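Re-running the complex after MR caught last week's input typo. The corrected sequence lines follow. Everything else is unchanged.
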Amino acid sequence: MTTPTWGDPAGPLTSAEFRAATQAIMANIEQVIEGKSATVRLAVAVMLAEGHLLIEDVPGVGKTKLAKALARSIDCSVRRIQFTPDLLPSDVTGVSVYNQETRDFEFKPGAVFANLVVGDEINRASPKTQSALLECMEERQVTVDGTTYELQAPFMVVATQNPIEMEGTYPLPEAQRDRFTARIAMGYPDPRAELAMLAGQNDHDPLNDLRAVTDAATVRRLIETARAVHAADAVQQYAIALVTATREAPEIRLGASPRCTLQLMRTAKAVAALEGRDYVLPDDLQALAVPVLAHRIIPTADAQLNRRTTDAIVAEIVHRLPLPQARTNPYDTRDGRAPYESRGR
Amino acid sequence: MTGRRRLGLVAAGATLLAAAPLSAIFGSWTWIMLAMITLFLIEGAAVATRTFRFPTWAQGLSMGAALLLALTWIFPSGNEIIIPDPDTFAHFADLIRQAGEDTRAYGVPVPDRDGLHFVAVLGIGVVAIAVDLLTAVFRRPALAGLPMLAIYSIPVAVYPESVPAIPFVVGAAGFLWLLVADNVDRVRRFGRRFTGDGRDVDVWEPSPLAAAGRRIGVIGVLVAVVLPLGVPTVNGGLLARWTASSAGPGGAGGSGPGGRINLFASLSGQLNLSTTVPLLKVTTTEKEPFYMRFGVADVLTENGFGHQSPKGGALSDGLPDPRQLPASGNAAFDEYSATIEVTKDLQQNMAPLYTYPTGVKDLKGAWSYDPDQQVLFSGRNTTREQKYQITYLRARYTAAQLQQAEPLAANDPLRAYTATPGDPTVETEVARLTAGKNNDYAKVRAIYDWFSKENGFKYDLSAPSTGKASEIADFLTNRTGYCQQYAAAMAWMVRAAGIPARVAFGFTRGTPGGNGVFNISNRNAHAWTEVYFQGFGWVPFDATPTAGVTGSARSAWAPDVDRPAPVASSSTGAAVPGVDSSGDPGAANGANRPEPGTNTGSTTGPVAEETSWTGVWVAAGIALLIALLLVPALSRVMVRRRRHAVTAPAAPTVLSATGGDTITDITVTGVAGQAREDAHAAWDELIDSMVDFRVPVDPTETPRITAQRLVRDLSLAGEPAEAATLLGTAEERARYARQPLQGAELTAALRRIRSGMSVAASRRVRLRATLLPPSVLLSWRLGLAEWSTRAAERLTRLRDALTRFNPRRLLTRTR
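Corrected-run output:
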């Protein structure tokens, strides 16, 4: 996927510059979201992987706050869309209006024309409106009235949704879910972080204090740097094995797509870069498997009846799948069984 | 075909195989034909009832009926029409009674007798029903081994000392077949076996789950082999043989099974023993007894002289009187009596006798007498530690009398004793020797006299002793041998001259102990020729030079050819005080000699040597065992050394680019490649060490996680923990990074982590890791499993290919 706006002349950063820039972003966000460094890191990694982020959790755990903090940390254009049932596709993409002066139709860009789009409660909008995001998320362009408009780079959609409250919501279609690189859950903060939150947010909202620590150009260079991370053959094979396993697992009706493979590897590179490595490890893939794969797969009716969450299914696949490497012992001495024999649950 | 019916057929086949040991009892194979017919009928009934889903009792009943019908058809009383009637059962009772008599009358192998066949078929049929029910109905094939064992116990009871091994192996194979068939059926009932990648697994392919079974099997076999060695009561064990190598004739002393004993092998075994073992003590009223005799070889084929199983009536029926028989009536007879005491070292089922016994007393067990062979034999008893009295008639002939003996008629049944394999060398020699001789005795003497020192014949115990015909013929050219060659060669030549002859086995006179006592040891084991003269019976001729044989004797009709007659009698007489050979008119040339000094004097020599050799053998065996046990440990050490050699830092080149300030493509140099190999070797070694120390290895873990788990689970701290992390990083970078970790002290790290694991492990695990490293055993097992899997796959392919030619397939297609 090549976008013309990506021809940045500045080139990649050195590892020190990369570390400084990313550390600054993460530290900035963690001023607001306390005790969630792993989540924050994943969010940043998705950004560096040119992906989109879906934050899914119960109300009140800071989904929107994370999205806004990420947006504020970067000095770039940020738009926020509050998805409501009556939101129209043209509100998202933009609309052509008749200009009296020029006597011509003039394109008024919608909310997606920004570097960072925060879509709140995305599942409250009708499928019609949700679908407006399909083109821009994947192709980073908007076509209105036959005219295609390029979006700015970087472009990232950070959406939130609430999995508990189903009334009046429209679940995301599979095509839409597949466009989100990762789905993360915030989770409740631990008591210490919650205490700190009480103290810190007593009188004012720290979100208001946030200053941008980087700009869009730097982010573009960061992204380019992360792309250069080396992924060895063994790692690529492992990624493919993971994705293939979701397609072949008996509990899964629909496995992960090739786009998913691509995004998994890209996110893994970003994670590796964030950790200061210039090579991807299978560990990175293992850590990313649940956030990147779980929201895309559809379990079989049996698995759903058994209350098997997709997270659990993916976690089990990761646990079961041997590394693509004949060096290690093919027999697991833990239970003395050959790898092809399924392990008990 | 359903599994149950297939199992039934397997059960029948297994029963037939398990009946194989009966072949040791029967002389011919008729019984197996009868057994096959019976099994076929029984199994047919079983399959039929199973097809119609009859209840279990009906299946058993139908098989019983099939057995009854089979017995009726094979052994009809003559009156019934297919269906057995009361007469039939009376006939069966008769057959059983007859079998009882036959078992007493016949030694093994028994001839084809209706009674014995009936009992055998009945037994096999009953066993077949039991095996079928246990296997196909109750699904307990292991229990079916018991009735099968019952068949095997029959030859064991008949041959108390040694049972032929091959029929047992065949029977055991049948049992194993049954077990395997049952288990395969059991697995099949679960459905198809296939691997995670969808490949069908052949039923014969071993499952890793079966490893425990294999292990138990190996241990069981080892215990079954090793344990009897340590139990002193079991004869014939390896240990017993070692310890007995200086104490007795061992198996060579005729402990072999009755019908199958190779008399020649036994004889050379006796003579070649390095020690002197007393076998018999004979007290006789005869002053100069001739040889004591127990067996005879009267069949001459390509394989040399062979021995027929003796046949004859029970001892209690009385013994023939040679004076009354026309065959030997012309000889003069003197009556004597003797007491024979057998030591524990002479264990055979043919009792030593002086010829023409007229009465045998106090011989324990069931013994029979073969009047043709003049052999006293038993099917199941041996002479071991027996003491018995005999009265016997000693035949006396003179050369003049024998010259009068008439030649044998052309159609006389005894002509069977003149058969030879036909060897031109022998025949020309015989023709040359007997040319111009006008009577049988003259011909025999011509041949007998030819075996003299002057003609280059030399006594030598080290001559080959296979007893083959070619070897006997060779003896006539190389002229070096001992009693068995002399006796066999002479018998052959006499046969070639058209006169019946055979080889007799027994003992020479032995060492006189005064008062008519003669002590006979294994040194006195001997073979000689017997020639048949019409009217005189079998007349002994001993062609072996007296010099070679302890206690040999010569007779008037067969004087010592190596010495001039008048001088010999006085010189040997003087040499042996207490034995007056000249006093006996019959013995012209007594040659009772004491045991050769070399043997009696230096008995301790060979014995000591023997024990020392035994010691060496035992030590070598133990050393070999230890070496075998150490093979895994050594193999592990070798592997480790090789890997350490790889991981030892050859050159301390550290690339400054490591860690990569700038993320750029760096070409992998030879040095980097080497570093990668080093890291892999170190990691392999670490994994093997983990296997050795029973730390779980998970193929789904990355090196980093494995290292972390090591540190956490083993509570490693300090240097070992650092070493684990270092190894994890090295392997991780070697596998996944552009630039591997270089210049790290991996060997030292390995050593540290190994010591760390060793500290964390229990003493048993530590010991095992050193002596019997699981990693080596595991790799062997994996190799074996892989090999067998491949073999099974190949077999499956072959079978599939063969199915293509299956005619059934063509039938299906046309349908």
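None of the earlier attempt is carried over here. The interface with chain B takes residues 12, 14-16, 225, 228-232, 234-235, 277-283, 286, 318-323, 325, 327-334, 336-342 of chain A (CB under 8 Å). The domain at 229-326+339-345 of chain A is CATH 1.10.8.80 (Helicase, Ruva Protein; domain 3).
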